[in-house]
């Protein structure tokens, strides 16, 4: 067993100081990996259930093989790793704004996502997800406007609690329409949220996508000795034609 606490990486970024740390939880007898932005916790390896379900629920409605998938926000890598476990996934573009986060995975600092960076289907794109949607260039620098079968997003705390004010416009009707233009017909947009289902945001989704569901994902919280829950929104793009 190593040190009880170790800061594995740290960097000043345009949205604050981001850090990756490992600590030993003596009560649970496990190593816990955590991502912090300034003094705020963003992700913890103690609570990966909803990040995993973001990929599973987001890919579940799709039919056929040779799926091209985007993950917005890399973090601890659970969503990307789970997407690659689906044999139908042909390619995975991971859009991450912070190069250091990508580097964590290239250096295999996170044992539970070993192999993510070396999987031949994976491509890391260092870019601002929200800017890529807003200007219409999309997620593939080599093919502007390229369409995908699924976009799985986990960056902000929720549509109402964003990490940067520039993200807010994405969660409007106009922002979601720009995202829908980057999806194939009947493609899926799935979103992780730390908050309970938001009726106002669900109404916004239904103005753009003909079908949408807010899944409540429950999981045990060993730190608080109770059950916690996140939300995964899954919306499906309308097909063309009559």
Structure summary:
InterPro entries: SAM-dependent_MTases_sf. With 242 residues, this protein is of the alpha/beta class.
CATH class: Alpha Beta
Radius of gyration: 17 Å
Structural class given helices, strands, pairing?
Answer: alpha/beta
Structural shape: globular
- CATH topology name: Rossmann fold
DSSP, total strands: 11
Number of helices: 6
Task: Determine the fraction of residues in helical runs and give it as a percent range.
Answer: 10-25%
Strand content: 35-45%
Widest sheet: strand ordering: 7-6-5-8-9-11-10
Descriptive tags:
alpha/beta; single chain; Spermidine synthase; 242 residues; SAM-dependent_MTases_sf; Rossmann fold; four-stranded antiparallel beta sheet; 6 helices; 21% helix; seven-stranded mixed beta sheet; polyamine biosynthesis
Describe the fold and architecture:
- About 40% of the residues are buried.
- The protein is about 20% helix and about 35% strand.
- It has one domain: Rossmann fold, CATH 3.40.50.
- It contains six helices and eleven strands.
- α3 links the parallel β6 and β7.
- Strands 7-6-5-8-9-11-10 form a seven-stranded mixed beta sheet. A four-stranded antiparallel beta sheet has the order 1-2-3-4, with no helix packed on it.
- The mean pLDDT is about 90.
- α1 packs parallel to α2.
- The chain has about 240 residues and is an alpha/beta fold.
- This is Spermidine synthase.
- It comes from Micromonospora globispora.
- Keywords: Polyamine biosynthesis.
- One of its GO terms (biological process) is polyamine biosynthetic process.
- InterPro entries: SAM-dependent_MTases_sf.
